[in-house]
Amino acid sequence: KQNAGYFGRLEELKTGSRNYLLDVSHNPDGIRNAVNAAKRINFKPDVVIFGIMNDKDHMGALKEIKALKTKVILTKPEYERALEPGILYTAALRIFKKSDLLAAARIKDSLLIAEKLHAKKIMILGSFFVVSDAMKALGFKHLPGSD
Fold first, then answer.
1. Which is nearest to 58 in space by CA: 80, 90, 33?
2. Which residue from 26, 134, 123 is spatially nearest to 78, judged by alpha carbons?
3. Which domains does the chain have, with CATH numbers?
4. Which of 133, 142, 123, 120 is nearest to 33 (CA)?
5. Tens digit of pLDDT for each residue in 69-118?
6. Spatial separation of the C-alpha atoms in residues 124 and 23, rounded to whole Å
């Protein structure tokens, strides 16, 4: 794995029967690289969980996520600069079919939605804050093998 030494760059985690691919990318180029990397390692997500900061190019990022051809749960981390899921959802309707979009107030809620969808492969994208909140919600205090 080539992750340039950054926390949360294409991190693969497993809990129970679910596999997660987490990436901190927060701009269209980074998202495109994460999407291409997922394809290279044959990680075909059943669902993508995505949140982003309000000062980032969310439309460009959403266009890159579209290439995964899967459902997307739009959410936000617990951080004041996070873009509200409702705003993200409205923007995403210009790119995705309504039937492919869901929204959740928090990362924890988005993980519960993914579980209810019976998703086994879940890709989590958008920022260090999104990945950090997801890891906490999944019960990881730090990356496995990092101590």
1. 90
2. 134
3. 11-137 (3.90.190.20)
4. 123
5. 999 999 999 999 999 999 999 999 999 999 999 999 999 999 999 999 99
6. 6
